[in-house]
Amino acid sequence: MEGKIHRMIAQARDVAYHYIRRDEEGRVVRDTAALSSVSFDIERGEFIAILGHNGSGKSTLAKHLNGLLTPGEGAVLIEGMDTRDGEQIWNIRRIAGMVFQNPDNQIIGQIVEEDVAFGPENLGVPPQEIAERVQEALARVGMTEKRRFSPNKLSGGQKQRVSIAGVLAMRPKILILDEPTAMLDPEGRREVLEAVHSLNRRERITVILITHDMEEAVDADRIYVMDGGRIALTGTPREVFAQAEQLAAIGLTVPMAVAVAGLLRQEGLAVEGTPLTQEELVEAICRAADKITGDIK
Ligand SMILES: Nc1ncnc2c1ncn2[C@@H]1O[C@H](COP(=O)(O)OP(=O)(O)OP(=O)(O)O)[C@@H](O)[C@H]1O
Ligand SMILES: [Mg+2]
Questions:
Q1: Which stretches of the chain drop beneath a pLDDT of 50?
Q2: Which terminal Cβ of the chain has fewer Cβ within 10 Å, N or C?
Q3: Closest ligand by atom to 51 CA
Q4: What is the pTM of this model?
Q5: Is the CB of 90 under 6 A from ligand 1?
């Protein structure tokens, strides 16, 4: 397998994981099943959104993708490397970078540039190259101007972009973001999503975005919906959001445009398809209205 380019950058094969708590004598006092029978193949360059209500296993799954957790059963492969292979773990962590919800817990440097340099420093990158990587990473998230700022002086969205730059400076091929916008205001959310989409489109970085926000999943290539530690639904956003009833059954909603189209249908207007955005909704309504005027004529 060595040297082979894997089209599938991340794979899960029947993964099961339990959080097990033991007492001093080693007896199991709590056993929480967090993942069961999870399988997927993620292709290089894909943008994947993972949805699911609280406790459905999203973060546990994310932590499996860079070896922070390893499967109790089954296997996770990153570029064909098994996350249980201790010799590969640093290669895996280099390929799969994680960004978490709270930027304040991730930023440790006193100055933006210093913070972004920590990752490559830990990898033992030579100083000259660190400087290049830091500059490049900050440019990629549009934070060059703030490079000498104290992170305290930044907005939430800016801090989160610095966190992303810190991961980018390690030159990952996969960016795993666990609810990166949950603590941000709408402006911060937009900034972070734009940065992530641009990395995916322009540089073909594989993105795995965990989110509670249905609108953030609309632009993904594919969605995985988690429920009770399993993948309950998967498909393109249009395929997944067409299944409003199944989503409701597991406690999830649909994007605004899909919901409005559904309400209009209940009111008797023949809005067709699954419009995902406001623009698509307006088009679908116009088509339905044209049909009515056509019928009257
Ligand atoms: N460190 C832990 N110890 C014990 N149980 C845990 C731990 N972390 C998570 N769990 C349990 O594992 C299950 C999956 O949790 P996980 O954090 O992966 O869900 P999630 O989908 O990320 O939830 P959220 O939307 O709240 O972030 C839940 O039942 C949770 O209570
Ligand atoms: Mg979580």
A1: 1-3
A2: C
A3: 1
A4: 0.93
A5: no
